[in-house]
Design brief:
The chain is an alpha/beta fold and about 600 residues long. It is about 40% helix and about 10% strand.
Length: about 600
């Protein structure tokens, strides 16, 4: 875990401030988290038990809970025995102070135990997030025990804040950084929310906001649904899309209008259900790292994909630097590795369900964190070949026509690797020629972990009404698969650019997604979407900022043009009525009707 480059974080906040939810969002994408619970349970206190149960239900299934109630030394022991590859979430230090105040332990004014805790936090080799109440912002407690608790908690918070890398205060769900001492070393093991290094502009903290799911497919945000065809998920507000585009014609703007960006305004309006949409300020880049074995990975290196994922975690490389420039945070998700598809399925059926659930959970946590848009990216060896196989299986496309060229590290085209990929795809399709090709079968046979996680992410984002910017083969392959599970998902997808990649272009045609720009940027999946993000943001920004034109279209006064005939003979006069602007000069030549029998006059009347 690395949050803004920090290894240890103290999250402070009052009651119901959102501190626990924010702390959980910091480690939400780490596959395994040790949740260290300090609060003692009282079987007679039903309300307190309900609070604890709500916390338990909110935690992902892969988290493990350690109870350290009853004695202050237990927490120190857990921190001291933690391993470097672990991630610990301690919630909260208020429960630890309660144990400290127990008469059976040393008194609160003896700072030895607090000093031991601070030393354990400083020396803890694991990635560490601690939650603590911020007391003492109101009146001094009127009871001795209340004053003792506030004093001990204040001393504890000060001691821990002194030794952690980052201290965040959460007020009304809004995190505010109050201490940041320096960047830690690049993290190892499963990461989350990696942001750029200090040499680049830092992304703003993402506030926590509860999101009410509207999907019928699942229940609570932490509970993945049953992934099967026919899932019921929300649709964007299409009527709002049309209204927002029509509104653009009334704005006080020079020229002919927004051009291609009208589609961006309509998409933003439909996904926000607002005819005057807002720009996407809180954007999260989700980078999926999952390698594939066999021939579809010919020309790729697992070591290189791991290096690219590591760059994103530490704030280096094109993806992280563009994310920093756009004010977006980066989350790296480790997807299951896929077996060679020419020999057998890439994943088992159970592994597919687990990968879908992981993607769903990533989207749920983005919703809880108030993310307004997700950029989907991937960097696995063989990912492009797997995506092309998914397209060939679902659309009947010829593999050789949709497999992109293979570039070697020296940027030379590797035709031998391309042919090996074609052979692997052909063999995989031949192996499964008599089988079914439903969405789950496609993920199991060809898609592998990264495309399965991406599919779950698209479904979860749809359930949370979060638009997704696709950029690359893995994203469009997941969009094709998710279409067969829930047809609503593709309507929440925007394709900023297809980069002229044959896989992406073909999938875009099938999905009905038209790219907004044509950058031809080839710096890795996700970079083109981030490069285009400022342009995409400017469309709803202008649409919301511009007022209406003072002279709306169609309001000009009519101008009558007399043809010069006898005005007394009104029945015989030819009058032409035009709608023009007041300052326009109009010259017409009109041939009048003949007054009676005989040829019409050939002299024009001005």
């Amino acid at each position: 875990m690395s949050v803004d480059g920090w290894k240890s974080v103290l999250v402070l906040g009052g009651i119901r401030s959102g501190k626990s939810g924010y702390a959980e969002s910091l480690v939400a994408d780490t596959p395994v988290v040790r949740y260290v619970a300090t609060g003692a349970t009282d079987p007679a206190d039903a309300e307190w038990l309900a609070r604890i149960e709500a916390h338990r239900q909110r935690r992902p299934h892969g988290w493990h809970t350690d109870e350290v109630t009853g004695h202050p030394a237990k927490l120190v022991e857990v921190l001291s025995s933690a391993q470097p590859e672990e991630t610990l979430l301690v919630d909260d230090l208020g429960g630890w102070v309660n144990a400290l105040l127990d008469p059976t332990h040393q008194p609160a004014d003896d700072g030895a135990t607090i000093a031991e805790l601070a030393a354990a936090v400083r020396a803890c080799p694991a990635r560490l997030v601690l939650v603590s109440p911020e007391a003492g912002l109101a009146l001094v407690p009127t009871t001795p025990v209340g004053r003792a608790f506030a004093d001990a908690l204040g001393v504890t918070n000060q001691a821990v804040a002194e030794v952690v890398d980052l201290v965040t205060l959460v007020v009304a769900g809004q995190p505010v950084t109050i201490k940041s001492d320096g960047a830690a070393s690049a993290p190892t093991g499963p990461p989350v929310a990696a942001e750029p290094a200090a040499t680049t502009p830092a992304a703003p903290a993402v506030p926590v906001a509860a999101v009410e799911l509207t999907s019928d497919a699942g229940g609570d945000a932490g509970q993945p649904p049953e992934f099967k065809p026919g899932m019921t998920l929300p649709m964007p507000a299409e009527r709002i899309r049309a209204t927002s585009v029509e509104r653009l014609a009334t704005l006080d703007q020079p020229g002919s209008g927004f051009g291609v960006l009208e589609r961006v305004v309509g998409f933003a309006a439909a996904t926000q259900d607002d005819a005057t949409p807002r720009p996407w300020d809180r954007v999260r880049v989700v980078l999926l790292h999952g390698d594939h074995g066999g021939g579809i990975a010919a020309g790729d290196s697992p070591q290189e994909s791991s290096r690219r994922a590591g760059q994103a975690r530490s704030g280096e490389g094109p993806l992280a630097r563009l994310a920093a420039a756009a004010g977006a945070d980066v989350t790296v998700v480790e997807a299951p590795a896929a077996a060679p598809i020419e020999d057998g399925p890439a994943l088992t059926a159970d592994e597919v369900q687990a990968a879908l659930a992981l993607g769903w959970d990533v989207a749920q946590q983005a919703g809880l964190a108030g993310v307004q848009a997700i950029v989907l990216a991937a960097c696995g060896a063989g990912a492009a070949g797997a995506a092309a196989t998914v397209l060939a299986a679902t659309t009947g496309a010829e593999p050789a026509a949709i497999l992109g060229r293979v570039a070697s590290p020296g940027k030379k085209i590797d035709d031998a690797a391309w042919m090996l990929r074609c052979i692997a795809v052909r063999d995989a399709l031949h192996r499964t020629r008599r089988g079914t090709r439903g969405a789950l079968d496609v993920l199991s046979q060809y898609g592998g972990g990264d495309i399965a996680v991406a599919t779950g992410l698209l479904l979860g984002a749809t359930a949370n009404r979060i638009p997704v910017l696709l950029d690359g083969p893995v994203g469009v392959a997941a969009a094709l698969v998710s279409r067969d599970l829930a047809g609503q998902a593709r309507h929440w997808c925007l394709l900023p650019d297809h980069g002229r990649q044959p896989t992406v272009r073909h999938a875009a045609d099938v999905l009905g997604l038209t790219p907004i720009v044509d950058l031809r940027l080839d710096l890795g999946e996700g970079t083109a979407a981030l490069a285009a993000l400022p342009l995409l943001r400017c469309a709803p920004t202008l649409a919301g900022a511009l007022g209406e034109h003072p002279t709306p279209a169609g309001s000009a006064d009519p101008v009558s043009v007399d043809t010069g005939q006898d005005r007394a003979a009104e029945d015989d006069a030819d009058e032409v009525t035009l709608f023009v602007e007041p300052d326009d000069e109009v010259t017409l030549f009109v041939e009048p009707e003949p007054a009676g029998p005989g040829p019409a006059s050939t002299d024009p009347t001005r």
